[in-house]
Specification:
Length: 811
């Protein structure tokens, strides 16, 4: 019987339910445990939205005591002590049973979470009603992690994506999913129990998401060799968990191809993690090896189908074939073989072979098909640029085929109608790409120096000398190298540093139709001729934003592709994100220097329509205050015969003063109105009217509070204030020293200095390093043996209301 001691009583539990519970099984995890707890303390989701349940599984080091010490530092940490159970399953199950969060995140005690991990994972789950959310992993101490499994996606399919490569439990799970399907860690396994748990959850999940744009979790390879997976294993223990998961997949996945794909992952595991080390090392020869072979053969008899072969790497398939055929001597030599020592591929009559050991060895008698990789070869391609040269669109890029040098390459680009019925070859020439050989040639093994190409697409003549018909057209590359042919639909970059910008649309000289290159939702390069899907686009940006008295004023520019700026009239619009209502802002034409628009991507015709607009939030809505809500900035552009609207972004370089400051305004009825212009995470401008995201409390930040290291009799408080237009008589610091009465002290704001600490702000924007700063010195008294605690709170009295920061206490 295990005796569990709960460190905190139920009466001490917080009354409100947390959003997420972090589950942590702990056994002899020092000193890594401290770093893990520190990472949980830093979580930006906030202590009030999370709880941590750590189960000390009979640790014999200082882990249990360290957890107890942290309960005073982390009020939301619950510690349960129990006798050792022999593995993490029992402690994890106990913590899941105790969890109160809507979501459960399972963390190991020797790993680390990224600061924003829980916030991002929960946000993804809430936005997409996800049952399971993967967070991108990184390795510590040489630990390897899958890269393919963590491609960012709001919704991902288990059977067509790569997420099944990662079956560790370090993910976010909806607790209702675990409870409704009785999903818990198996207690009879100490190895691979996490794969069983995760597979059950994935098969039961309706929505699976991946946060792939942030390192959420850092998995560690322990330097002390104490990781559980390093424990000696019996022949059956090496196979038992794989058999359990394969039985689960076979029982619950009815679609044949889906089942084969998932089983392929486990056959890769059985060959790579079980057969390979046993067959390759002489120390396992004899009864242990024979017993392992018997268990693996039983597993293969139950689940192997030849149709699973395409889901296995070529060498894995070859090793498995030898095992299934009882060719154990060949299997053992293939398991000792190192792939980096193999000779180059053989290209022969349009077929490619990888000459592993026993290739065309008459004594071995293995068929060539086991060594052929022709159908496995993928075309690798990229579009590296696109630009208008006069009336023609010039597209450049490169294309190659895996493991085949580009000697004798023939590449041509094609324009294909979306229905595939019309195909036109484009003038294409090859270009040199020595960098591909350097980057991907595996130290000279392959020569990809002729993979480059450049093609010209003239919308007036691309269709065999005439203009293509109206519709959507895709760009394809046809690559033929040494008799091996691949056709690939070309992609376009998603944007970001170092990426080329998609050219703007054009009015076609012949006929006046629009020609618009664009990136499809699937990331492909497409061309809309005639405006059926994508017409000429409008864009706009704000170059300056500031308070002018009681009014907000913006300066910026907008344009419609290929339309002269003098023909375009701009109109700034505030559009409510909640009600979809809109407010027209008085707008007039204004000159905007071209240098202020340098952040804009290149366009077909540099035709900007500069403007300035101004609105008083207290009279914006027909003389009434701007209603509560989030209002996005849009720009409507009107030209003869065409009207476009675009959401406004800010150019780079705007200061925090221009982008984001809460402004309390008092209307004529004596009501306080909170107005905050800010920039969203995607770079668009918006106004928070009424404190939806931003309140003065979130802008009153105490960054530091500690005794002066020199005098020890003064307490120094530093912080930042993000409220705009604060008068000296409105801001004060309320201070309590020991048991004395509270008193207030004046606060003077000044521009921040380089050494001033910058706290983390709350809300969509996080950069507070430009906010006005303050430093207040408080006489704290006390002697060498008695140093009373000092509690400080920043207060702002404005518009008849009082706002206050969280209190900060230190000794």
């Amino acid at each position: 019987m295990l005796h569990a001691i709960q460190k905190k009583t139920d009466a001490e539990k917080p009354s409100t339910s947390p959003v997420v519970t972090v589950v942590m099984a702990v056994y002899n995890a020092m000193p890594y445990l401290t770093e893990a707890l520190e990472s949980l303390e830093r979580q930006t989701i906030g202590a009030h939205r999370m709880e941590i349940i750590a189960v000390d599984d009979g640790s014999t080091d200082d882990s249990g005591a360290e957890l107890d010490r942290w309960t005073t530092r982390l009020p939301h940490l619950r510690v349960i002590h129990q006798e050792n159970s022999g593995g993490p399953s029992g402690p994890r199950n106990l913590a899941i049973d105790e969890a109160r969060g809507r979501y459960v995140f399972i963390a190991d005690a020797d790993d680390v979470l990224g600061d924003e991990a829980l916030e991002r994972l929960v946000a993804m789950a809430e936005e997409n009603t996800s049952d399971v959310v993967y967070g991108r992993m990184a390795g510590l101490g040489g630990r390897g992690v899958s890269v393919l499994a963590f491609q960012h996606a709001a919704r991902v399919d288990l059977f067509t994506s790569e997420i099944y490569r990662s079956l560790g439990p370090q993910k976010l799970f909806r607790r209702a999913l675990l409870d409704d399907h009785a999903i818990r860690f198996p207690l009879d396994l100490w190895l691979g129990e996490d794969q069983v748990f995760c597979t059950e959850a994935l098969l039961a999940a309706r929505v699976i998401s991946v946060v792939g744009d942030y390192d959420c979790y850092y998995a560690r390879r322990r330097e002390d060799g104490q990781h559980l997976t390093l424990r000696d294993k019996t022949a059956w223990e090496r196979v038992a968990h794989i058999q359990r998961v394969m039985d689960l997949v076979a029982d619950r996945v009815s679609n044949t191809e889906h089942r084969r794909r998932l089983l392929g992952r486990h056959f890769r595991q059985i060959v790579g993690k079980t057969l390979l080390p046993i067959a390759a090392q002489d120390e396992f020869a004899g009864e242990f090896r024979d017993e392992t072979y018997r268990h693996v053969r039983a597993l293969c008899d139950a689940h192997w189908e030849p149709e699973i072969s395409p889901y296995l790497p070529l060498l894995t398939r070859l090793r498995l074939h030898c095992f299934l055929e009882g060719r154990y001597a060949q299997l053992e030599e293939l398991c000792r073989f190192q792939e980096h020592s193999q000779p180059p591929e053989l290209v022969e009559d349009g077929r490619v072979f990888r000459p592993y050991p026993f290739f065309r060895d008459p004594a071995a008698g293995l068929p060539d098909e086991l060594f052929e990789m022709t159908d496995r070869l993928k075309a690798r391609h990229a579009v590296t640029g696109a630009r208008w040269d006069g009336d023609a669109l010039t597209v450049s890029g490169h294309a190659r085929i895996d493991a085949v040098s580009t000697r004798g390459v023939r590449t041509r680009l094609q324009l294909r109608s979306r229905d595939g019925r019309r195909v036109y070859d484009l003038p294409t020439r090859h270009t040199a790409t020595p960098q591909l050989t350097e980057e991907h040639g595996k130290q000279g093994r392959y020569d990809f120096g002729l993979a480059g190409w450049e093609a010209e697409l003239d919308p007036g003549t691309a269709a065999d000398g005439g203009p293509p018909e109206h519709g959507v057209w895709d760009l394809w590359a046809v690559v033929d190298i040494q008799g091996i042919r691949r056709e690939v639909r070309l992609g376009a970059p998603a944007g970001g540093p170092g990426r080329w910008a998609m050219p703007a649309g054009r009015l076609r000289a012949a006929g006046g139709d629009s020609v618009v290159p664009y990136r499809t939702k699937g990331g492909k390069f497409a061309l809309d001729i005639g405006g059926g899907v994508r017409g000429l686009a409008a864009q706009g940006m704000i170059t300056d934003q500031r308070w002018d008295g009681e009014a907000l004023r913006w300066t910026g520019a907008g344009w419609i592709d290929s339309v002269p700026g003098e023909d375009v009239e701009p109109q700034l619009i505030l559009r409510s994100r909640q009600s979809k209502l809109h407010v027209l802002v008085p707008t007039r034409r204004a000159h905007v220097p071209r240098t202020d628009l340098d952040a804009a991507p290149a366009h077909g015709v540099p035709a900007e329509a500069g403007f300035t607009a101004e609105v008083d939030p207290l009279t914006a809505d027909g003389g009434s205050p701007l209603p509560p809500g989030v209002w996005d900035l849009h720009l409507r552009l009107t030209a003869p015969g065409i009207t476009r609207e675009t959401r406004l972004r800010a150019v780079t370089g705007l200061t925090t003063e221009q982008l984001w400051r809460v402004r309390p305004l008092s209307d004529g009825d004596g009501h306080l109105r909170l107005v905050t212009p800010y920039m969203t995470k995607s770079g668009h401008l918006a106004i928070d009217s009424g404190g939806i995201y931003f309140t003065p409390e979130s802008q009153l930040l105490l960054a530091e509070g500690a005794r002066d290291p020199e005098s020890r009799r003064e307490f120094v408080v530093r912080g930042r204030v993000g409220v705009y237009g604060v008068r000296p008589d409105e801001l004060r610091l309320r201070v309590t020293v020991g048991d004395g009465p509270p008193r207030t002290m004046p606060v003077e704001l000044a521009p921040p200095r380089p050494g001033d600490p910058a706290p983390r702000a709350v809300g969509p924007e996080r950069n507070a390093d430009q906010w006005p700063a303050f430093t207040v010195r408080i006489p704290a008294g006390g002697g060498p043996f008695r140093r009373p605690a000092v509690t400080a709170r920043l207060e702002l009295a404005t518009g008849g209301e009082l706002f206050a920061s969280r209190p900060h206490t230190a000794r």
